[in-house]
Specification:
The N and C termini lie far apart (59 Å). The chain is α/β, with parallel strands linked by helices. α2 runs antiparallel to α4 and α5 packs across α6. The chain contains 10 helices and 12 strands.
């Protein structure tokens, strides 16, 4: 029998308005993510996965368990609520700007940070851009790629993708930077090891007080993640990015992320690209 709780029908778990509010507060405190009212069904379906793991039928029981749990369960809770939509060369206009920017550095070593790398497509797009810019698979570039979600980081580090994820890739890029799978790996492609060696993948929560990151950084990509934060959290994040940027360093934001309310810290220098004010 289906019961309706707070406007949502459920056959499996008891889920109340109070449960949803607790989830919203907990994920905001843990990862800075602001869940709108429209995300109620998403919270139900995703956090419901953790109830199944623990053999529970009430969200209230799971949330009570979570609040006394160790870091592993908090990590799992954060992972299920993290949205990881990404693609190779997403918002493609940013990558020529990145290439132009590093060309001004006189061939010195370049350091980049992909701060919400998800399953790795963005970080590898940065690496491909650098290989093309320097015309070598071993450019003088170091890329740090971080994410709060440990599951997607594991996938990113493997660097293996189904071919349908690469359908929009230019054929010459596909040939140069990927190895096609055969046998059991047919239908997949792996990023070349030279590019994987340019990137260090690390777990990092952008809301944590201490980042194990040192500048100066030539560019920071923080795209399509700040949209999940409220404006004070966005401001605090940019306030921490700016001191890490090298002189003239660039901050790349997502297409829906206007930083107009942070003009005292950064100024636009392109389409959703910023420099320190």
């Amino acid at each position: 029998m289906s019961i309706t709780l707070g406007g949502w029908a459920s056959n499996e778990f008891a889920f109340t308005d109070e449960d949803f509010e607790r989830i919203r507060k907990l994920i905001f405190k843990q990862a800075g993510i602001s869940l709108s009212d429209s995300k109620r069904q998403l919270a139900y379906s995703r956090v419901g996965r953790r109830l199944r793991v623990h053999g529970l039928t009430r969200f209230a029981d799971y949330l009570a368990l979570l609040e006394t749990a160790g870091p592993e369960e908090w990590e799992a809770f954060t992972n299920v609520l993290t949205t990881n939509l990404t693609a190779f060369f997403r918002e493609e206009h940013h990558f020529p700007l990145l290439a132009e920017h590093v060309r001004t550095k006189g061939g010195r070593s370049i350091t980049l940070w992909c701060s919400a790398c998800s399953t790795g497509e963005e970080a590898y797009s940065m690496a491909i851009t650098m290989a093309e810019t320097f015309d070598t698979l071993r450019p003088p570039v170091r890329i740090l790629a971080t994410d709060v979600d440990t599951n997607v980081l594991a996938a990113a580090e493997r660097g293996v993708y189904p071919m349908e994820r690469l359908e929009r890739m230019k054929p010459e890029r596909l040939r140069r930077f990927f190895q096609r799978g055969a046998g059991a790996n047919k239908g997949h492609a792996r990023v070349r090891p030279e590019l994987r060696e340019l990137i260090r993948f690390r777990q990092l929560n952008l809301l944590h007080e201490n980042w194990p990151i040192r500048g100066p950084l030539d560019a920071i990509f923080c795209r399509n993640v700040m949209i999940y934060f409220d404006k004070p959290t966005q401001y605090g994040l940019v306030e921490r990015f700016v001191p890490l940027l090298a002189d003239g360093g660039l901050l790349f934001a997502g297409h829906s992320e206007s930083l107009g309310h942070i003009r005292d810290l950064v100024v636009p220098c392109g389409r959703t690209v910023y420099r320190a004010a």
